[in-house]
Amino acid sequence: MAKYRICVIGGWCGNRLVMVAEHIAELLEKKGLDCQVKSHSVWENYNQPPVSNLILQLLPAFTEAEVGCPVINVRPFLIDIDHPQTIEKILTQIQADFALTTQS
Amino acid sequence: MDRQLYLDYCATTPVHAEVRAAMLKSIDEDFGNPSSMHWAGRNAMDLVAGARMDVARGLGCSPDEITFTSGATEADNLALLGVMRRHKPGKAHLITSSIEHHAILHTSAQLQQEGYQVTILPVDGHGTVDPSDVRKAIRPETVLISVMMVNNETGSIQPLAEIGQLARESGVLFHTDAVQGIGLLGVDVNLQNVDLLSLSAHKIYGPKGIGALYVRKGTNLAPLLYGGSQEKALRPGTENVPGIAGLGAAMRLASQHKTQENSRISRLRGVLIAALQERIPGTLVNGSAFVSPHVISISFPGADGEMMLLNLSKAGIAVSMGSACTSKDIEPSHVLTAMGLPRDQIEGTLRISFGYPTTDDDVASLAGILPDIWSRAKVN
Q1: Domain stop point among B234, B254, B274
Q2: Per the CB 3.0–4.6 Å rule, which of B193, B207, B228, B322 could disulfide with B246?
């Protein structure tokens, strides 16, 4: 089975983008969720949305229709990288997607 | 849009053709070292003297009160460090404001580290320093007040003459960073009671890497650099002659055109604000009614400034925004924060700034495209 792909989308602030992506990757690993987490700056490439199972956006770059997968607004991470409600939203989405994959 | 549109004149301006010509002449013909005694040196020295006269005329001062620097950051540093370091740390006190450029705020922080006392004044919701706050902050040990002429993010004009008067009455020196004011507003260091004034060429269609500090006669500054006797040993080092020629030409142009440009740009500003407020609900203009017309700080609450900036840039339009990336965070502008704006308003803020090349068509293009860009940048 292909790894579940998550892409964190950010902008000019590359440091924050990488920090968020690394933090999410660590968190998911601790939870035993096998995912591949990448980061993508819209300043480097805005024409082609990344192919992913889940998009986490620090800024409103893409819509679900454009990327063909769920998109979660993770803007609260700009202030609090451990923002509980946002983490909860991400985990709920991934667990739901994992459950679907297991069923199929 | 099939053309590029530059609307970020607060960040920098293109070099004017007349400035370029003056600089090229200096590079090609007046290449001598102004300190040399022979003809080549004298030609270069004449050019520097002419430019010094142009800058002095623009400020209403004497040419020997002008010191050329590498730009406004150096001029600001020279003013603050130069005045304060003539006094012993511990006692000497500096007053500045929370909306100053980092060249002032970070220099003030350095002075604080060196043991000097620093008071940073608040501003009101329009981004203006209240002279009565200045009055209250003055102490017997205050030696310098530094308040900018025009804020670079909102365009708010600060009450220089009143603050200058207070400083004069209290026997305190008054410095102003006039970088954003010099191109469109009247400056007279005597009328405004200014003792030190910083300016930069590249904000007024001159080259980057050159600026000046006006130092009122009799003001005693400690130099930042040590070396030759150039600039009366206050700023040693061989003069940047092409840069100085460019600054002189830029000051001449500013003095000739500022009144007419101020009125033309004021009209364009009004047109853009009215169009955006009509087309984008909730649009807010930041800053006081008393502004330099070339700066518009405009907030679209609920939208992401960076996405608007990115999409405008993709469409060929250059503006800037109200937040900056630091090593750990997207940091809201210290100016808009000091004005008490909420974070979501700051994050949806763009700074649009006009220059002499800006036309009615440019304003119409921006007003035409921005509603779609705003709609796409809304944070859900």
Answers
A1: B254
A2: B207
